[in-house]
Amino acid sequence: MHIFDTHTRRTQDVERAQQQGMYEDATVQQFMSSPPITVRARAHVGEAASIMIAKRLHRLPVVDASGHLVGILSRSDVFKRALQERADQIKALTVEAPTV
Q1: Which residues lie across from 59 on neighbouring strands?
Q2: Where are the domains of the chain?
Q3: pLDDT tens for residues 30-54?
């Protein structure tokens, strides 16, 4: 069974291109996505997750009301939080369950 790890593959591609000198004269502007896809700091996390899934993003810049960068939200941030909330819900149900 062959498992294709796209993250590892992309990392290897970037490293190979760098070793071959492909980035020597390149600027970030030539490679960046524009306009950037962002989410407001006060947006619901579900909205951010939907954007990440729809746009196939692993990280999403978070901006304040003025459009200034205030942080980065990663898929793992969202996943860890969702797992913690689920664990808290299960714990609450277990604590509240009557004993027989």
Answers
A1: 74
A2: 6-96
A3: 878 888 999 999 999 999 999 999 9
Question: Residue 74's Cα: distance from chain center in Å?
Answer: 3
CA angle (88 as vertex; 59, 80 as ends), nearest 5: 15
Could you give the CA distance from residue 2 to residue 20 in angstroms, rounded to a whole number?
28
Residue 81 to residue 50: CA distance in whole angstroms = 15
**pTM exceeds 0.70 for this model:** no
Q: Where are the beta strands (DSSP E) in the chain?
A: 39-40, 59-63, 69-74
State phi, psi for 40 to the nearest 5 degrees: -75, 145
Instruction: Identify any residues that bridge with 39 across adjacent strands, giving them in sequence order.
Output: 62
Q: Which long-range contacts (CB under 8 A, 24 or more apart) does 55-58 make?
A: 58/7
Domain 6-96: give its CATH architecture: Roll (3.10)
- Neighbouring CB atoms inside 10 A of 33's CB total 8
